């Protein structure tokens, strides 16, 4: 044996002893180690938990809330399977709505002032059956950890009872009666319906863009924070809000511009406590009436005074945004975005932008001689907005969740999940940004985001990292944006539609090819017949026959148009990708009216389900990422057991 081999052997022995020391502290006896081995082996043989993937929610809270409550149709399936022959359709609709919205249904019955004793007894029995069904794929230990604190013992008893034991049946009947007589039926129903929904979906992946367009992204964020196991792969609109909270001025003004465009001033002022008063005062004094900046869908001929006020505010924010962007571009030549320094590239004398005739040359707060200069009044507006965005307690909680549970991409159970793209050159090679490409570029982007947030948390400002939020929002090499450039200015100021197009990155051509997708997966350390890329960002035009499953099943694009603005384009109202122990299926959701109507009419979102990949053998926990970790633990425990045996310890 060489000296090098002897040294390596000594190091392995030292590592083994240290590992044995640590693991034996946790499992100090043979009995403790053996019990944990039995527990892990049992878990490994259980079916894989169900994962749901959704993307591009764009603030559509009510539709998202309902889909979370019905678990993308999983709850309805359980109800149909258990009670399809025993209940009428109306009764099944009533029962499913009770699971989705228990407090609302109970409140209705209370308003009727009828004796609900029998109704409670029936519902309690049915709910326990549904709960038993969704809990069947988990260990009793895992279910216990999910049980609501005030009813943990009772629910554990009820869902694990021996149904053939007639003496126990009477015992459980007494439990239900006691719950009702003690006035705890409402609380128990709310608790067990929450448990049903928690067990029906083991994990929820949001593939980007909680924010933009829809009026309640804040409520969606609250729902995600309350969820038992949710994560987010950042979208370009999410990063825009994240940058705004950290104080990126271009991001702040862009968020304000888009919020006003979609008539969502209430989201800023009431949702997040961000005052627009100084902006409103400034705009009324310095900005002209301009119909191009009226909120989307506004009839210019009948615009109200409020519409005109919001339009002036939006125009002021947009022009200041162009200045803030110009400053970032000037500081960051590595971005290669000199052509997007809009104000510095306008020929004010000719009224042209790169040779294109401008439809209007009125830029009331822009000095052609010094186009990026902010006046003292503008600085006051911007500083006020910055203070509001940085100090909003609610926005702080939401961005903290984005940072703690979010990432540029995620690798989970053989799937690569990201919002936008892996940026490519036209020849199919990876785009290079500051020496980074492919997976390394995504890691670099995430590292800068986290660096900026770390500085913010310490009360400092990392200018380089903070500027990068704006680049991620609209930069050519941004994996979150995925286009050549953002043409908002051209669409507002140039009539020729040839200047309006936002050219997609070449990724969206190459990703239709199976071999290319397999290469990307390999570059991210993933391989195998059942590996996939899961994307959002680009709406799938289902009504035109476009298939969300591409590249012979290696790519699934799940942006189905949650946002109402996209319904006409896509023909549906969003997708949910479901990955359970049997394989993959896609739910295409029809438009949703409102939660109020769903409760009133006992209606549901109709979802067209397509099963497009079925596994030959049912997936078990041992086949998942968690399973790999458990197998490592199992190997360590077996090593410990061997050590016990070698020392004759039993």
From TrEMBL:
Give the record's GO biological process terms: gluconeogenesis
Do you know which SUPFAM superfamilies this protein is assigned to? Answer: Metallo-dependent phosphatases
Record Gene3D superfamilies = 3.60.21.10
**UniProt entry tagged with the keyword Manganese:** yes
Catalytic reaction(s) noted: beta-D-fructose 1,6-bisphosphate + H2O = beta-D-fructose 6-phosphate + phosphate
The lineage's top-level taxon is Bacteria
Q: Does the keyword Hydrolase apply?
A: yes
Q: Which GO terms describe its molecular function?
A: fructose 1,6-bisphosphate 1-phosphatase activity
**Keyword entries, A-Z:** Carbohydrate metabolism, Hydrolase, Manganese
Specify the pathway: Carbohydrate biosynthesis; gluconeogenesis
Enzyme Commission designation: 3.1.3.11
Supply the Pfam families for this chain. Answer: FBPase_2
Q: Which cofactor does it need?
A: Mn(2+)
Family per UniProt? Answer: Belongs to the FBPase class 3 family.
Q: What is this protein called?
A: Fructose-1,6-bisphosphatase class 3
Q: Which organism is it from?
A: Candidatus Borkfalkia faecavium
**Gene of origin?**
fbp
């Amino acid at each position: 044996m060489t000296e090098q081999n002897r040294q390596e052997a000594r190091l392995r022995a030292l590592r083994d002893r240290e590992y044995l020391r640590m693991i034996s502290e946790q499992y100090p006896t043979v009995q403790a180690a053996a019990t944990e081995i039995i527990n892990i082996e049992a878990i490994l043989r259980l079916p894989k938990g169900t994962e749901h993937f959704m993307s591009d929610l764009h603030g559509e809270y009510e539709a998202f809330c309902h889909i979370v409550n019905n678990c993308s149709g999983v709850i309805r399936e359980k109800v149909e399977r258990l009670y399809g022959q025993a209940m009428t359709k109306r009764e099944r609709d009533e029962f499913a709505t009770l699971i989705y919205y228990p407090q609302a249904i109970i409140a209705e019955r209370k308003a009727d002032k009828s004796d609900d004793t029998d109704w409670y007894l029936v519902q309690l029995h049915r709910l326990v059956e549904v709960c038993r069904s969704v809990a069947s794929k988990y260990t009793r230990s895992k279910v216990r950890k999910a049980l609501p604190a005030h009813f943990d013992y009772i629910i554990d008893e009820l869902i694990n009872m021996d149904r053939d034991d007639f003496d126990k049946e009477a015992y459980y009947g007494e439990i239900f009666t006691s719950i009702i007589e003690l006035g705890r039926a409402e609380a128990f129903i709310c608790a067990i319906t929450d448990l049903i929904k928690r067990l029906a979906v083991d994990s929820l992946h949001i593939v980007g863009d909680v924010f933009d367009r829809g009026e309640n992204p804040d409520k969606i964020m609250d729902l995600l924070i309350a969820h038992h196991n949710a994560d987010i792969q950042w979208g370009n609109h999410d990063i825009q809000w994240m940058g705004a909270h950290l104080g990126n001025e271009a991001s702040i003004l862009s968020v304000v511009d888009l919020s006003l465009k979609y008539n969502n001033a209430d989201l800023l002022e009431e949702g997040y406590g961000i005052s627009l008063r100084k902006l409103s005062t400034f705009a009324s004094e310095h900005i002209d009436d301009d119909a191009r900046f009226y909120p989307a869908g506004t009839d210019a001929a009948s615009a109200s005074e409020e519409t005109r006020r919001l339009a002036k505010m939006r125009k002021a924010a947009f022009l200041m945004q162009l200045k803030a962007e110009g400053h970032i571009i000037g500081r960051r030549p590595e971005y290669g975005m000199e052509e997007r320094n809009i104000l510095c590239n306008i020929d004010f004398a000719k009224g042209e932008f790169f040779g294109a005739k401008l439809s209007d040359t009125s830029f009331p707060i822009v000095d052609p001689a010094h186009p990026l200069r902010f006046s003292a009044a503008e600085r006051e507006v911007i500083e006020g907005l910055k203070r509001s965005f940085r100090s909003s307690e609610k926005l702080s909680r939401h961005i903290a969740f984005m940072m703690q549970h979010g990432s540029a991409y995620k690798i989970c159970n053989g799937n690569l999940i990201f919002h936008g793209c892996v940026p490519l050159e036209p020849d199919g090679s990876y785009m290079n940004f500051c020496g980074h490409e492919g997976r390394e570029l995504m890691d670099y982007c995430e590292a800068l985001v986290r660096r900026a947030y770390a500085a913010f948390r310490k009360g400092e400002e990392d200018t380089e990292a903070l500027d990068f939020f704006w680049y991620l929002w609209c930069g050519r090499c941004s994996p979150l944006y995925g286009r050549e450039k953002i043409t908002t200015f051209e669409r507002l100021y140039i009539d020729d539609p040839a200047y309006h197009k936002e050219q997609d990155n070449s990724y969206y051509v190459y990703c239709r090819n199976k071999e290319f997708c397999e290469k990307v997966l390999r570059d991210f350390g993933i391989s195998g017949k059942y590996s996939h890329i899961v994307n959002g960002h680009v709406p799938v035009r289902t009504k035109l026959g476009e298939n969300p499953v591409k590249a012979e099943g290696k790519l699934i694009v799940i942006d189905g148009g949650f946002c109402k603005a996209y319904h006409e384009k896509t023909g549906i109202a969003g997708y949910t990708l479901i990955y359970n122990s049997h394989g993959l299926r896609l739910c295409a959701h029809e438009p949703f009216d409102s939660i109020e109507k769903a409760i009133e009419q006992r209606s549901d979102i109709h979802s067209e389900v397509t099963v497009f990949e079925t596994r030959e053998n049912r997936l078990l926990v041992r086949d998942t990422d968690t399973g790999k970790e458990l197998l490592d633990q199992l190997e360590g425990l077996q090593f410990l057991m061997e050590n016990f045996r070698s020392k004759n310890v039993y």
